Structure formats: structure tokens, C-alpha cells
Amino acid sequence: MQTQSYADFSAVFQQRTQAFRVPVHGTIEVTRRCPLTCAHCYNNLPMGDHEARQSELTYEEHCRILDEITESGCLWLLFTGGEILARRDFLDIYTYAKQKGLLITLFTNGTLITPRVADALVQWRPFSIEITLYGRTRETYERLTGIPGSYDQCMRGIRLLMERNLPLKLKTVAVTMNVHEIWAMQQFAEEELGLEFKFDGLINPRIDCSASPLAVRLTPEEVVALDLQDTKRTAEWQELMVRCNGLVHSPQTSDQVYHCGGGISSFAIDPQGKMSICVLSHVDTYDLRQGSFREGWEGFLGRVRKKKLTRITKCIACGIKAVCGMCPANGELEHEDPEKPVDFLCQVAHLRVQTMGFPVPSHGECEYCEGGTGYEALQRSVLALQSGSVGAWTTSGSNAMALPPVSAGPMASGCASGGCSACSLAAVHQR
């Protein structure tokens, strides 16, 4: 009998359903309350925030929405926060979702996982669990989270899940406060625990557009230096550059604001029941307390997806857009303008492409292309990266560069997010 891998099945299934605009991927933020006070987080609120608790969807409202999203075709669902376990009834909501037949991923910081929680997850096994590790040492972890004792609570949560052989992965967000321990975290996860590990160096402002998380954001050079210090990561970027060489979007669709999966195959719902394109975008929202999911999906988000660009920017004809994190949601958070390019992301993309030996096709008036005001400074950063003079963090033996050493120059996310649902949720399930 011929068999098919899950990754192949998932890819084919998504390609086929996308043509019919089926909401197969969903993200539900059950709360924004969290016991941690991480400096980089884009949406966390205090555990005792009475207003936040009172505004959250009730258990009954969650059940009604879960009924409606599964009826509309949702298959994969991500529960995120805040901290999902900040809600005392989260396991009830989760169990109901499991009974609907959904393939569920959980994003958590792990600090509130108890034997009772872990046992419940054994009974109703999730598709995947991802815990964010904020540092390899207690000192670094708790300096970032701001909560004494949180490191030991996280370690306990990891241990409880591993003892029950639950599908666990670890990840981190690389910021100025923990970047020196990225490779130690990777070694701990992969070699000591035998778990998959990933990290991301791109963070964004808070959803209220506060720039406070950017105080701990790495420079563009440091972001690329981390890419280059991991041979597997470098190879993946190079493969993507070869595969997506040239324009990402066809001339026929380049006049649209959105090009991601949001509103086509994915959606996000916030703690108050507001549905949007993704967890980072809150300009256009549909209130599920006032209408049905089907009405919001077929009508409201359908119209949002058809929004047209109002002006020409350098992003439209950019041939390296596949390696850039720019999207309308990032434009909204950084500039309150979905069409305005984010300079930080533009620098990262140009550095990433050039340090790995790929050309940057001309795409209009761009500061970082030849003749632009930032071109010479960017070239100096490229040379610094290629000489290994930036980002001299210790790497684990298996990940040290086999090529000439490379490093970096100048250049949203919290534990729960792990990226935008519209852009990256599909990738979570393709393994």
C-alpha cells in the first residue's frame, strides 16, 4: 500500500483548499493575561487585570465559535495568549475543541503546567505543544521575564510534559538580553532533551503600537549573524532564495494589500471575539459576539482581502520579498500604515541576501540598493558579517560555520505568538 507523509498530505490539502477560500487554519487568543512580564512581549497583560478578564469570551461563547469554525472547514487550530493557562477554564475550552476533531497546537510559557494539566493533555493529546525558553541560565531567563522563580516553573513544565511523552518543542525569541545564550539553549533542547528547537530574532511593537519591545530588539546585523552561525539555518535561507528568486507576486495581484494566507485559508480571533486577518493586525476586525463566523469569514474578511494598494512603494516590485518579514500588519504596528515599508525588515532582507552571495534585483527607489543613501553603510555591514567580526556568540560544535565565519552589523512577538498565523501557522503543521 502506498503511503504519504504528513507533510506531503498537509501541503497538498492546503493547496487544494486555498483555491476555494476555506478557513482551514485558525488562531484563537484565549487571553492576554500572563504571569510573566517579558520586556519584548507584544500583547501581555497582568494576571490580575480585572478589565481584561471581564472582557474575555466566556466558555459558552468559545464553544459556539468552535462549533462555527469547524462547520466552516477549520482543521488546524492554534491556542495562544498571553498565557493560555491563565484562564482557569482553558482545559474545558481545549477539551471541547478536541472533541470537535481539531488538530490543536498550544503555545505556552510552561510556567503554569501542573501534573493535573499534563495528565489532561495525555487524555486529550494535542497535535503539538511549544514552550518558549527565555534563557539557558536562571539569571538570564528571569532577567527577561521579570519574575523570580519562573525559570524553575518552566523547567518543571517541560519535565512534566516530557515524562508523559507529549509532542513538545522548545523555541525562543532572540533579544539583547538573551542572545548570548541562544546556542546554549539550542544545545540544551536538542542534545540534552532531544527536542526540536527554533528561534526568531524579529520582534515587533505591541499591538497598541507601543514601541517598548524594540528597546531589546537585535540590530539587523545581529539578526543575520545568528542565521549565518547555524549551518542548517543558512542552508534553509539559501534554498528559499533559490526557490523564490525574483518577484514573489504576479503583476495581476500586485495591486492588492495582502498576499499572505490571512482571509484566504487562515484567520485569528482575539480574547474579546474580534476576528481579523492575523494576530498582529487589529485595524479591520469583525465582532463575533454580534455575528456568526460564516458572516465574518465570507463577508467581512473577504472584503478585507480585496483591499487595493493606494500608492507605489519599493516593496511592490521587490525580488527578495520572500526573505523579508514585511507585511501589512508590521506596517500597521510600526507606522500605523499597512503600506509603509518597515526599515528594519528591509535592512535585514538586504543583508541576508547579500551576505549569502545572492544579487538584489532593482526594485525602485530603495535606500539599500546601489545608489541609495544607505547602500555604502550596508556594504560595510555585509563585509563585517562575511569576516565574522559581528555577533561573536559561542556556537555549539555541531552548528559552527563550516564556511568562512560570518557575523553581523547594525541593522512580535511574545512566547505565545511564535509568528503570525497567516504567514507561519501553515508551516507549523508541515513536518
Q: Give the % helix.
A: 25-40%
Q: What is the subunit organization of this protein? A: single chain
Structural class by secondary-structure content: alpha/beta
Radius of gyration: 21 Å
List its salient traits:
431 residues, alpha/beta, TIM Barrel, nine-stranded mixed beta sheet, 15 helices, 11 strands, 38% helix, globular, disordered C terminus
Task: Write up this protein.
This protein has 431 residues and is of the alpha/beta class. It folds into two domains: 12-211 and 414-429, Aldolase class I (TIM Barrel, Alpha-Beta Barrel); 219-257 and 309-410, no CATH class. It has helices spanning 6-18, 50-55, 59-71, 90-99, 115-123, 138-145, 150-163, 182-192, 220-228, 231-243, 293-305, 328-335, 343-355, 375-387, 421-429; strands spanning 25-29, 33-34, 45-46, 76-80, 103-108, 128-132, 168-173, 196-200, 266-269, 274-276, 286-287. A nine-stranded mixed sheet has the order 8-7-6-5-4-1-9-10-11, sandwiched between helices. Helix 4 (90-99) links the parallel strand 4 (76-80) and strand 5. The chain is globular, with a radius of gyration of 21 Å. The two termini are 21 Å apart.
